[in-house]
Amino acid sequence: MPTPHDRVLVVDFGAQYAQLIARRVREARVYSEIVSRTMPLAEMLAKRPKGIIFSGGPASVHVDGAPSIDPAVYDADVPILGICYGAQLVAQQLGGTVERTGGGEYGRTTTNTTTTFVHGGRRPVLLADAPDELQVWMSHGDAITRVPEEFDVVRSSAGSPVALFEDKQRAVFGAQFHPEVVHTELGQELLRDFLFKVCDCRPTWTNTNIIEEAVDEIRAQVGSEGVICGLSGGVDSAVAAALVHRAIGDQLTCVFVDTGLLRLGEAEQVEETFNRQFHVELIHVKAADRFLGALVDVEDPERKRKIIGETFIRVFEEVARDLSSAGFLVQGTLYPDIVESGGGDNAVIKSHHNVGGLPDDMDFELVEPLRNLFKDEVRAIGEELGLPEDIVWRQPFPGPGLAVRIIGAITPERLELLRAADHIVVEEIRRAGLYREIWQSFAVLPAAVRTVGVMGDGRTYENPVIVRAVTSEDAMTADWARLPYDLLERIASRIINEVAGVNRVAYDITSKPPGTIEWE
Ligand code: XMP
Known about the structure:
With 520 residues, the protein is an alpha/beta fold. It folds into three domains: 192 residues, Class I glutamine amidotransferase (GATase) domain (Rossmann fold, 3-Layer(aba) Sandwich); 186 residues, HUPs (Rossmann fold); 103 residues, GMP Synthetase, Chain A, domain 3 (2-Layer Sandwich), CATH 3.30.300. The strands form four sheets. A nine-stranded mixed beta sheet has the order 2-1-3-4-11-10-9-6-7. The longest helix is centred in the middle third of the chain and has 23 residues. The mean pLDDT is 93. The site of xanthosine-5'-monophosphate has 17 residues, from loops.
């Protein structure tokens, strides 16, 4: 169906960044669509794109079977921007040179404009007004050492003689660095220049369009069948439920499962907010015994996740059976959940309970209207759908709950201790006015560890609690939050004074990477 919106294709060469590029294009309010590199060129062109972006990818253009694209694309009269691997592919296909120079660049890298071109007095098309020196994010082993004829080199770095290049006539561009990554200065500017100055796109794509598109897709997928939605109290499942409700109304039944792994007062709070906000049936399943029973003596994080993922599904299946319909299950899965669970060409970091933790033999077809989106986009959509602030701006909480914050086996006593400590962390962060600014803040219990202390002139030998607070844009990367010392002190002394069994508090200062946000 032709869309009234200008469309840009992102050709996926196997990078987890393809979605990030698509997201940056959406941020510029242009409709973007990710297509596989194996899609025939005629099919790509039939979509009438105003521009085509080649994503990065893990391969080297030199290996046998390296992902490629029909070179006729360069004669299709559609502007092209190659990024990282995509740029190398452009260079190679049009007759330039890509070499393994032995000097790869990873992370923050300085680029400068070139003397021949920019200092020679010419103005580039992309980043025309950028300063001479620009910090960008690189991640490559091979480098482009010579551009094809007719191309100009606009920027270079120590390890990339060709960091940004262009053929103005043909409207073909390449960036060795990643403009889509936040650490690249003026990265979004570069993309905007491509979209608006080169492709002449109109910025018409909004969250309302995203909602309309999702609603159409949901209707097409489920028809007149019954659908159930697992609601966790977090923003993702709430937005997913609201979208599905908008699409199919009463065909939706929401299910809230109390796993026994929730935070203090959470079950009551979710039910209360839900009843206030949604006018849909809510089934509250109290399944703490079942989850905790299945987790007795389980210490391995991946086993915990798989058991929890499976138990959720079994509970949903039973509810669906009782409703004697419902072949569909709505989940608020986001794009980062899929990446970490090893989606596409990516390595498994951890099996998110709702992706890699799902059993093979489940009775449902999944409905995941948010699977290509990032958390901040989901929040914006939640606001647009009129969800209340306390849902939209809730800090994320993982489906496996406190199970992945108790390091070691889960017992009711450990859960109780962690709940009390966690409550203090969040309460103090809220009091300090930092709740929104901080991506997640919580407590972790390394249950097997005991430490010696002295309280009231006596020796103690009790548990430490670890406080974790991170800032992040999308959970793909995160930094530890620089909390004020007096706030940390308040949290620590309250936990030790108020939570029986804790005699020490530590603060986690690990970023992601190399750590992850959760401890398990
Ligand atoms: P990590 O620990 O991988 O977490 O840095 C990234 C984000 O995902 C959340 N998370 C999960 N959410 N099911 C979920 O619904 C899961 O199994 C899961 N594991 C981690 C985590 O809280 C953080 O926001």
